[in-house]
Every structure is written in structure tokens, then in C-alpha cells.
Amino acid sequence: MAFTASDVKALRERTGCGMMDCKKALSQTDGDMDKAIEILREKGLAAAAKKATRIAAEGLVYALVDDAKKVGVMIEVNAETDFVAKNSDFVAMVDSFAKTAIEENPADVDALLKCKAAGSDMTVEEVLRDKILVIGENMKVRRFARLEGELCTYIHGGGRIGVMVKFDVDSAVAAKDEFKSFAKDIAMQIAAVAPQYLNKEDVPADVVEKEKEILTAQAMNEGKPANIAEKMVMGRIGKFYKEVCLVEQPFVKDGDITVGKYVANTAKELGSEIKLVSFVRFEKGEGLEKREDNFADEVASMMK
């Protein structure tokens, strides 16, 4: 019995399994849908797919740098519970995925999932699916960032917040303890204050215009005449830059200077030019819907 592309699609919709898995199952059963579902269930694939509907907003933000290659990766892998995120097997899996991203340089998460996982004969997707079946929780590789150059990473709160910063600096200077201490200060600043941009030039023009509109409306609502409102907006937009731009922010360890000034001071002390090139900040589960468990309801449903 032959099968069509629409049969593969129908099996995928019924089981939630991957296209290739569905195709293989239908090939093995000569297109028999029910037997194909049985095969997928026997392999545990359908069980993993069932778990894929559950919310995974816990997990781990993890960073890894290959000093020899001067390549770093920060990755977020989500699970359903904080307990699983602390599991050594889960952490080892995330480490393997980070190494894979360093070695293979995939374009995005979909490409990473298709890569052979570091230290394994399976793809990242297969390793993940295997772990879902063993641990019994939904898990997802949510995102990763890969940077090349002189890097510093910082992980806060056991994988709750991760930061990776790229610097333009002489490699001999980058190897000094003084620079490493400075770089960590910058990474911790990003973790604590969560800037959205590196500097003023990085803020998109439409974002600035929108902010000016809001600030103008605020000033007018305060009863200020148009010419005064305009001056107030220019002052307040400066405050906006100090909030969202890293180099404009007051330095957390010394509020009398900006981060930009701290960079300049350190460059002078070390006798070398230092430039902040870019940064990435991940906060675990940000923007994801969290699962709200009601213990009383859970117990009641179990008793039923």
C-alpha cells in the first residue's frame, strides 16, 4: 500500500512527530496509519511529542568559550522545572550543545538541531528527544548566540542570567588579570542593569522618535507650552539614553562615572586602546509563559 505526502502530514498532526520519523514509519508499515502510530509509540517518539505541548520556561542559560579558537557561545535550553535544570545530566547535555555550536557554527536553532552533537553519534535534536523520554519533561533549545574575538562571559544566579561581551583589545592586554577583572565588571553591569543597546548610535531612529513623542505628550499634559516642552524632551531623552545604552549608564561600582568613562580610564591604565564591540544578555524564560501550578487543584484532580 503506497502513501502520499498528505498521509505523512496527517500522521504528523496525529502524533506530533517529525516529518522524517513519520515518513519512515509509513514506509515500514506500507502506509498503514494505525500501525505507523504504533511504531512511533514503541520508539517513544509519540510520547516525546505529547510532552512537547507542555510549557518549558525553566532551564538554564549557559556560556562556554574556547580560548584557543577565541569563540564563545551562550545558549538557553528550557525545561519544565527548576529541579531538572540542576540535574547534572541536563547540564552536561547543554554543555554538549554549546560545544556543538562552537564547532559547527550553525546559522540558527533549526540548523543547530540538525548538527551531530559534540561527543555523540546522534544529532542535537535526537539527544534532546532522548532526554525528554528519560527525564519525562518537555525541553527546548530556545536560542543561542555565537561570538568570535576577545570575549568575557558571566553567569548569574546558577544560570538565570547570562552575559557575553566582545572587546576590541590587544590579545596581550586581554591576557592580563587587570583586564579580566575589568571585563567581568562590564559583564556584571550588563547582567544587573540590562541595557538594550551598546551606545546612542545603536538605538534605532524610530525608537528615539517614539520616545520623543511619549515625552512630548507627557510635558504637554503637565501644561507646559510647546517651546518649553521641546527643551524638556531634549533633557529627558538624555536620561533615556542613560537607561538603555551601556556606555551612557552610570557605572554600578562608581556612580560618579559612566561605563564609557570606566572603559576609557582602564584603557589609560593598561596603556592600550579598549573598545566595547557588542554584548548579548539572556535571561532564562524571559517572554515565555510560566506554568502556574495550583497545588490544591492538582491534589484534587489526582484524587478524582
Automatic annotation (TrEMBL):
Entry's transmembrane regions: none
Compartments, record wording: Cytoplasm
Signal sequence interval, chain numbering: none
Coiled-coil positions: none
UniProt keyword Cytoplasm, yes or no: yes
Family annotation (InterPro entries): EF-Ts_dimer_sf, Transl_elong_EFTs/EF1B, Transl_elong_EFTs/EF1B_dimer, Transl_elong_Ts_CS, UBA-like_sf
Listed GO MF terms: translation elongation factor activity
GO (cellular component) term, any one: cytoplasm
Gene3D superfamilies per the UniProt record, alphabetical: 1.10.286.20, DNA helicase RuvA subunit, C-terminal domain, Elongation factor Ts, dimerisation domain
Residue ranges of domain Translation elongation factor EFTs/EF1B dimerisation in the record: 72-286
Record's keyword annotation contains Kinase: no
Keywords of this entry: Cytoplasm, Elongation factor, Protein biosynthesis
Chief site of localization: cytoplasm
Chain positions covered by the region annotation Involved in Mg(2+) ion dislocation from EF-Tu: 81-84
HAMAP family: EF_Ts
Function per UniProt: Associates with the EF-Tu.GDP complex and induces the exchange of GDP to GTP. It remains bound to the aminoacyl-tRNA.EF-Tu.GTP complex up to the GTP hydrolysis stage on the ribosome.
Family stated for the protein in its record: Belongs to the EF-Ts family.
Protein name in UniProt: Elongation factor Ts
